[in-house]
Amino acid sequence: MTEMGKIIEAADELEAPVTIGAEAYISADYARDERDLLFRKTWLQAGRLEDLPEVGSFMTFDLLEDSILVVRTGADEVKAYWNVCPHRGRRLVDTPAGRRNARGRKMNFVCGFHGWTFNHAGACTYIQDKEHWQGQLDDENTALGPVQCDTWGGWVWINMDPKAGSLRDYLEPAASLLDPYQLQNMRYRWRKWVKFDCNWKVALEAFNETYHVPGTHPEFMAFGDFPGWAHNHGLHSNIGYDAPKDMEENSGKLRVGTGDDARISTAQMQNYTWAAANTNTTQTMVDVANALVDELPEGTPPAEVLGYWIQRSREIDAARGVVWPVVPSSHTAKAGTAWQIFPNFQIGHAVNNMLCYMARPVPGNPDQCYFEAAVFELYPEGGAPETDWEYTEAQDWPPVLQQDFANMAAVQQGMKSGGFRGTQPNPYRERAIPSLHMNLAKFMGTSAPHKLK
Ligand code: FES
Ligand SMILES: [Fe+2]
To answer: Whose CA is nearest to atom 4 of ligand 1?
Structure first.
């Protein structure tokens, strides 16, 4: 069978048990090809619009050997350029040592080597001794190279392929299913990054399924069993929780605890989540959860506990100017709790908070990646905290995330074992993994998932 035939067959079999070879995770040749075949062809999330508050605000986005300079050029306009000086190839804006990216505000970008100067439109406005080029320098060969750039969900997205189609088309159906959550209104609460000893896919795949919760986060099992599903949607995939018919809203991220008394288990789960993960909820929701036992009678059914908890939190937030979007529970059931945006970004959405992960490869090394997590919530107008990317060693992250991190380097090592036969993801709960690899195979031309038997 041809490679494309195998890929198509794999797509048909996404719901069937498949196996994925280790090549995509450990091969140096595969990792080298990812730059040209994957990352220079796909739309990539390059930063948040709130990091570009004024005209002239800029940020850099680095991926492998490429650096992209993103600049706010107008109230509603952002542009992106290759971050390289057209004179002798010096990177135009340096990423300060130890920082994830550069960020600031400039009226002009002046190259540090010979002083060529560029305006926000990417045009070169100053060249020392320009006449020495005998009239051969023009607007085109002196301008910064443009990179496709668009916005959605409050993020800036770039695509290094000038022939790439539109961002919106690329993001569907994720964009339409996530639009009701108004993610553009969320602001950072905290953001951290770190270098890990695993491939970027291993890092992302530690977060794109709920199958690992009993094994990796056994503490959560005290609050209930939360079986999850995963669905493929073309390039992307999403995951969510199975919920009983009368509690569709419980398929979202704001879930009620189980057990004898949902008032108590919800409060326990919220306190643990807030203290040990510092994400997936808000202070308002924790406070209201802690009051459930006083405000609701013993024996209140879980669906009513959930409804009261969410409604009360919504009211308290609205009174301080934090208005949650209204998303019907039937929509929550479809949108799930997290979207894996191909190839390297995950959006874990809710109506009042959000947790996102991105992983980027490290040049020349399939066994390492840069991993980052950003936690967002809704704030009153002007009330969002000032944050920046904090490089944080694994042992200094919230404990629940450390539990996830503890698997990563061990998976990378294990996949290199001569005795490893390829991954065998759970066809129902870990379907996001075959979805990623089926799509990777379309770009990379190798390593498509195959039927397990
Ligand atoms: S390399 Fe930029 S001015 Fe010479
Ligand atoms: Fe986890």
So the answer is: 114
pLDDT the model gives residue 317: 98
3-state SS string for 375-415: EEECCCCCCCCCCCCEECCHHHCCHHHHHHHHHHHHHHHHH
* Matching residue, tokens 């409060």: 267
Per-residue pLDDT tens over the stretch 129-158: 999 999 999 999 999 999 999 999 999 999
Q: Is the pLDDT of residue 301 over 60?
A: yes
- Ligand 1 lined by 111 (C-beta under 6 Å): yes
Average pLDDT, the chain: 95
On whether the CB atoms of residues 148 and 164 are closer than 8 A, the answer is yes
Ligand nearest to the CA of 117: 1
Cβ-contact 423, 411 below 8 angstroms: no
- First vs last C-alpha separation in the chain: 16
The torsion of the CA quartet 384, 152, 321, 284, rounded to 10 degrees, works out to -70
* Rg (the chain; Cα; Å): 23
| 85-108 pLDDT per residue, tens | 999 999 999 999 999 999 999 999
**Atom 1 of ligand 1 has which residue's CA nearest to it?**
88
CB of 87 shorter than 6 A to ligand 1: yes
Please tell me the number of the ligand nearest to residue 89's CA: 1
- Structure tokens given for 242: 């199975």
* Smallest-distance ligand from the CA of 85: 1
What would the mean pLDDT of 51-68 be, rounded to a whole number?
Answer: 98
Q: Which residue type occupies 53?
A: P
Query: Is residue 114 lining ligand 1, measured as CB closer than 6 Å?
Result: yes
Q: Going along 166-209, which residue ranges are E strands?
A: 187-196
pTM more than 0.90: yes
> Is residue 25 within 8 Å of 413, Cβ to Cβ?
no
Q: Rounded to whole angstroms, how far apart are CA atoms 267 and 252?
A: 17
Tokens for 67, please give them: 């650096």
Is the separation of the CB atoms in 16 and 24 below 8 Å?
A: no
The finding on whether 40 has its CB within 6 A of some atom of ligand 1 is: no
